[in-house]
Design goal:
15 strands; four-stranded antiparallel sheet; globular; single chain; Pseudouridine synthase; 308 residues; 8 helices; Structural Genomics Hypothetical 15.5 Kd Protein In mrcA-pckA Intergenic Region, Chain A; 22% helix; alpha+beta
Length: 308
């Protein structure tokens, strides 16, 4: 049975987007519903969703449009900027939607790939220079990211980030009216529902501290400056979501928000940007401080929220 050109349904509680599509469209195979997502035909709550593994909590408006453009063909290669480079390290501005490092063996288009492509365009032997991972930011987060180019720098930067000696600030937009706060908890890989989160058990998890400062109040959201004392996986996203203020554009840490019956603001990207990065050079000891402006995609979503 052919799939209608357009359609929409309300997702049932729990499960992935692929499972919801498969349940509503039984004529489509698993591969076909995954292909609908990856080709840009699916939207959730009005925003295009490319990840078939996105977790749904129930109540989301899932729609398909077979005429929607394929982002793999219409979207240009993400541009990025090399902010600083010397013989020991390189700092870049990573675009959103790009993984810091490969999470699967065959993953392409990561930050490492962007750097090597830039080196090749400069006529440099990209394969001859190693790149060591010492710092990560989420795939859907944009902003400043650092790699080491020598083992000496790798060892030094590893100590910088391990002992939280790097200064890092993020700009974020969160749902609701956020208040200035210091958020402290212990984060674990599974809080009981398959998601990372905080635990009250003192002997488990990793200590995490987040400082939140309010910059601007919007009609349904708040622009925040967030300073990290520690750098745990998804720390900002988890801490703000557990305070009842998930980031705008968040697709994972939504359970507490949606179960309370609150509405999610549609957004084309996660509104989280690594805006500053500062540390002592691991070899020379020279102080390095970098700042990154909000990318156009972030600014466009912010302006739209201001007009609501």
């Amino acid at each position: 049975m052919p799939l209608p050109a357009k359609g929409e349904f309300v997702a049932l509680p729990q499960g992935t987007l692929a499972a919801a599509l498969r349940g509503h469209l039984p004529s489509q195979s698993w591969n076909e519903v995954r292909a609908l997502c990856s080709s840009g035909k699916i939207s959730v709550n009005g925003a295009r969703e490319l990840d078939p593994a996105r977790r749904l909590t129930g109540g989301e408006a899932v729609a398909w449009n077979l005429a929607a453009p394929d982002p793999r063909r219409s979207t240009p290669r993400p541009e990025f900027q090399i902010v600083y480079e010397d013989g020991h390290l390189i700092v870049i501005e990573k675009p959103e939607g790009v993984s810091s490092v490969p999470y699967e063996r065959k993953e392409r288009g990561t930050a490492l790939d962007l750097i090597r492509e830039a080196w090749r365009r400069q006529g440099r032997r990209a394969a001859a220079t190693p790149l060591y991972t010492v710092h990560r930011i989420d795939k859907d987060t944009s902003g400043l990211l650092c790699f080491a180019k020598t083992k000496l720098a790798e060892r030094g930067l590893h100590q910088v980030f391990k002992h939280h000696r790097a200064q890092r600030e993020y700009l974020a937009v969160a749902h609701g009216q956020v208040r200035p706060s210091r958020i402290e908890s212990r984060l674990i890989a599974d809080r009981g529902d398959g998601l990372r989160g905080s635990t009250r058990r003192p002997n488990q998890g990793q200590h995490a501290v987040t400082h939140v400062e309010v910059i601007e109040s919007l009609p349904a959201a708040t622009v925040c400056r967030v300073h990290l004392e520690t750098g745990r996986t998804h720390q900002i996203r988890i801490h703000l979501a557990e305070q009842g203020h998930p980031l705008v554009g968040e697709t994972v840490y939504l359970r507490d928000h949606t179960h309370a019956g609150r509405t999610l603001l549609p957004c084309q990207r996660l509104l989280l940007h690594a805006a500053t990065l500062g540390f002592d050079h691991p070899v020379s000891g020279k102080r390095l401080d970098f700042a990154s402006d909000l990318p156009p995609s972030f600014q466009a979503e912010l302006q739209r929220l201001r007009r609501r």
